[in-house]
Amino acid sequence: MKLKNVFLGIFASTILLTSCTNDDSIDNNIALGAYDNGVLVLNEGNFGTPNAAVSYISNDYMVVNNIFGIENGDKKLGDVAQSMSFVGDKAFIVINNSNVVEVVNRYTFKSIATITENLKKPRYSVVLNGKLYVTNSSSKSLTVYDAKTFSYLETISIGKTTEKIITANGKLYVMNGAFGSGNAVTVVNPKSNNAMSVITVENGVNSIEEKNGAVYVLCGNSAKSKLFKINTTTDTATSIESTTLTKALNMDIEGDKIYFTKGTGVYAVGLNATAFSETPLFSVADNSFSTFYGFNVIDGKIYSADANAFTAAGIVKIYTITGTELKTVSVGLGPNSFYSNK
Fold first, then answer.
1. Which residues contact 88 (CB under 8 A, 6 or more apart)?
2. With left for phi above 0 and alpha for psi between -120 and 50, is residue 96 left, alpha or beta?
3. What pairs with residue 237 in β-bridges?
4. What DSSP character marks residue 112?
5. How do beta strands 111-115 and 100-105 pair?
6. What is the number of other CB atoms lying within 10 angstroms of the CB of residue 297?
7. C-alpha to C-alpha distance for 82 and 187, rounded to whole angstroms
8. CB-hemisphere CA count at 13 Å for 211?
9. 3-state helix, strand, coil in the chain (%, to 5)
């Protein structure tokens, strides 16, 4: 009788072990941390004050503010949170006026490391082939770090405005413009000893994105708006323009659409459009310089941020693509960008 019980126990254990190791039974919906499966909001804070913060908006629009402080013993994130980039389970938070990059687990927001070496008013970052590249406005350069050990590797001098940065086709594309000026993109090829070339675009370059191996660049000034599409094999560009729809900003790409703003309006064109759409999808109330201080399209929803003059909590409004308001929430001071965290 005892032997029979032993046999039945072994048999049951075998079935349990088999079912637990069967890929079909793994729950892929298990959260990787408290801030998984939602949207991260980067809040700049006030210049000269270390009150930058990150907010989290869940899929059902619940908000948790100051998640970096909550998860790290009320540690201050720093002075002017400019941007974030991601690789694997890590997030790199670029803190402009503090001259640091905070490295955290993107799902738990627990601190991993703080990068400080050779940062001079850092702006944006990206990871390529195991290296973290950070743009620096004061030194007009890229500083390069090991993306696993976070140790400093080298500095690549760009020699002109060094702002947003993306990767495409194994190369780095650096926007050479900020605050309404600049008309170029520098291409850096790490595989060719950081060889550089410059692609001339239109004055007022303000946005750069990669999609399907191509690089898209949006420029807007008082005379025209111009959208460039760069072939990343030849690094040559084609473009469309509008002289009636001027000062286009805030390009973001989702699916087969390019979204952007102009004044109080949200616009969209196809990836292969031959002309600008000059009819907005919808418009929002004018809040002076705070209108669309942050703008991103995530999972078919448009997230817009009102900095609220940097005197009170920032306001985030979430819309459908056609402009139906889904939710309004309060976040930190000076929200400037949104990031999908899944």
1. none
2. alpha
3. 230
4. E
5. antiparallel
6. 24
7. 22
8. 18
9. 10, 50, 40
Whole-number Å distance between alpha carbons of 283 and 162: 32
Place of tokens 């509008």: 242
Could you read off the pLDDT of 197-230 as tens digits, one per residue?
999 999 999 999 999 999 999 999 999 999 999 9
234 φ/ψ angles, rounded to the nearest 5 degrees: -100, -15
Q: Are strands 141-146 and 131-136 parallel, antiparallel or unpaired?
A: antiparallel
* DSSP per residue, 247-286: S-EEEEEETTEEEEEETTEEEEEETT-SS---S-SEE---
SS3 138: coil
* Residue 150 region by backbone torsions, left for phi larger than 0, else alpha for psi between -120 and 50, else beta: left
- Span 228-287, pLDDT tens digits: 999 999 999 999 999 999 999 999 999 999 999 999 999 999 999 999 999 999 999 888
Residue 15 DSSP label: H
CA atoms of 31 and 338, how far apart (whole Å)? 20
- Judge whether 217 and 205 are in contact, CB under 8 Å: yes
Hey, what amino acid is at 6?
A: V
Q: Which residue has the tokens 């013993």?
A: 73
pLDDT digits (tens, 9 = 90+) for 55-65: 999 999 999 99
End-to-end CA distance of the chain: 53
Determine if the pTM surpasses 0.85: yes
pLDDT digits (tens, 9 = 90+) for 99-131: 999 999 999 999 999 999 999 999 999 999 999
Residue closest to 92 by CA, chosen among 10, 150, 138, 140 = 150
Task: List CB contacts of 246: < 8 A, sequence separation 6 or more.
Answer: 220, 221, 222, 223, 224, 225, 262
Of 274, 272, 83, the closest CA to residue 163 belongs to 83
- Residue 28's pLDDT is 57
Contact of 285 with 252, CB cutoff 8 Å: no
Count of alpha carbons within 13 angstroms of residue 195, beta-carbon side: 3
